[in-house]
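Late entry, written up from scratch paper. The run itself happened at the end of the previous shift, but nothing got recorded in the book at the time, so transcribing now.
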Amino acid sequence: MSQRFNLRQVAPEGYKAFGPLYQYIEASGLDRKLVDLVYLRVSQINGCSYCVDLHWRDLVKAGEDQRKVNSLITWKEAPFFSPRERAALAWTESLTNIAQTGAPDADYALVKTEFSEKEIGDLTIVIALMNAMNRVGIGSRLAPAVEAA
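Output as recorded:
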């Protein structure tokens, strides 16, 4: 597949508008590895190959255990995730699949056991931003670069 369009080139002001959200997330106080786990899980659910590759690399570069990263798709069964991470991932799946889930009260109750209301708001922004970026990546057919061996 070839790339359909480059958002940075065809809509530079729109592309730049995402920047302040990334800056907000960086300053939010949420743990960087948790944010990257959420970015990666959203991207796995949506099937954005570019974003999966990017966020997998970010986690490995940050020193996250590779078994944990490789087990993200099976986080409900894998023993590598803390209760806080599990609550964040459950909220991530609920919001990413919102057309099917409707973000039920039970999912909110779970995330509320591990996060303050401000943190839930920030986590929701993280999830929303990555869902938006996945739609840009998938819609434009953005693909990870193939590196020479």
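The mean pLDDT is 95.
(Scratch paper discarded after transcription.)
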